[in-house]
UPF0738 protein J1899_07620
Amino acid sequence: MKNKLTISAVHYQEEVNELVLSIDREIDLSNIKPMEQMLVDSDHLAFVYILEVDNDYTYLVLPEHSWSDLKKAHQTEAAVKLTNGKTEILLTAFQEELSYLIENITGNSNYGEVMVEKVESIFQGITQE
């Protein structure tokens, strides 16, 4: 089983157009490399951003409670950062990956009815460009 980091707090900073994702654990962020890929965990209603830590994958879990802030940041193409309370790292390609997933999930029953309904209700209007 891969390591998982779950977001404990999400803060959209409108004045600097940044979304800051906080994790509970004290982790040395200098060892973390963004992999510029996202997955979906339909069973747990979460988006998962992939990180590399010491040549192994770690999943950064973005549960449903963070999605309204993700939407705000997505609409303004905000930079997305991960923090452990001491250091921050930029999660590159986050917005592009999120766009791709939202578009693929919308109307796609392969992700499960509940996941599709939640994504469509929260991210409504994002794919209508």
Q: What stands out?
A: The first helix runs from residue 67 to 75. The helical segments are 67-75, 94-105, 113-122.
